[in-house]
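Final report, closing paragraph on structural work. Over the funding period we assembled a curated collection of sequence-structure pairs, and we close with a single example.
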Amino acid sequence: MRLFETPLTRLSARDRNAWRALAQCQGKLISPYLMPEFAEMIDAERGDVRVVIAGEHGAPAGFFACHVGGDGVLRPAGAPLSDYQGFAGRAGLRVDVDALLDTLNARSLVYENWLGPAPGKVSARGGSAVIDMSGGAADWFAARRAQHRAHFRKMDQRWRKAEREFGPVRVVFGDPSGERFAALKAWKSAQYRASGLLDLFDVGWIDTVLTRIAARAFGPFRGVVASLYLGDELAAVEMGMAAVGVYHSWFPAYDPRFAAVSPGLLLLHGVLENAASLGVARIDLGRGEQAYKAYYTDYEIPLSTGRALRPGVAAAGAGLWAMAESMSAILPEPLASAPVRLRRRWSHTAAIEPDLTGRIRRMAGAFASAPRRLAAAG
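Its predicted structure, as stored:
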């Protein structure tokens, strides 16, 4: 196997078609994140997406879109936005990580949601929760109600409660004016700030990418904006991506005023009921251990978090982080998890900010707001 690197903009139409075909394992798309269109949306704002082509027997066997920062760290394209990372390639494709780093002149690889055989050292494994709607919404709901009777009875009760207290429940798809997506951003940003997480909508290139995907309502790769109304009030909005029969739920948010009726789950039910009209047979809820997923997930697609480091400063720094996390485990919360949270925040900050000055500015802002968040939590 040989590896070739090229800027995304230099790929030919034939290469892009080969990439799309490899993203569809046995004729089924794995995820919209692994398509060239997603990489192109990222590159349109950042201008630094590079593509590694794995070649076998004179033909492409895999494509990997990525960034290499000035610090020599290799990251999948769009990280930390990308819920699926790695090669769109033939089944079982394995790429030598040293060859990958050599091809890009990088000194380390960091990833969070790697699909397939993971390179380097894996630190965590999980799965992306998938709902299989290929048999139709009526059959799916009937099977789930039989399996999780109490949960779905509760959801029926909340639907009736919402109608009694607020008015008719309806789900709307599309957002021609952009007002619904604007509401989602406001709710989500408030949630990020309250929890101390990095506000993705405060990052210029991320905000623009998400806004443009949300507005891309047509075509084989498109954004989907689904909205829940209770009476005349907008109660919840979800934005995701759809392509080749797959819808990936990405950014859900709701108005806290309606929390008692679970507007996010009411909206999910509306999306499931309309899967056929959306042209999707699978709905991917992403990776995570949120309790509600147990009632909806049909199967999971395994994903890995990890890194590959060359000997040197990066490897030494990673060792110090690991030591700090191990030593802090004996402390009471929130001190016990502080190193883990700090490393994750730095990893995300480094992914979204290409230069050191920007990274330091964002980390300083996070430290400055930490006492206020802790006081509010207490």
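The first strand starts at residue 2 and ends at 7. The chain has three domains: 2-126+302-309, 135-280, 313-377. We thank the funder for supporting this effort.
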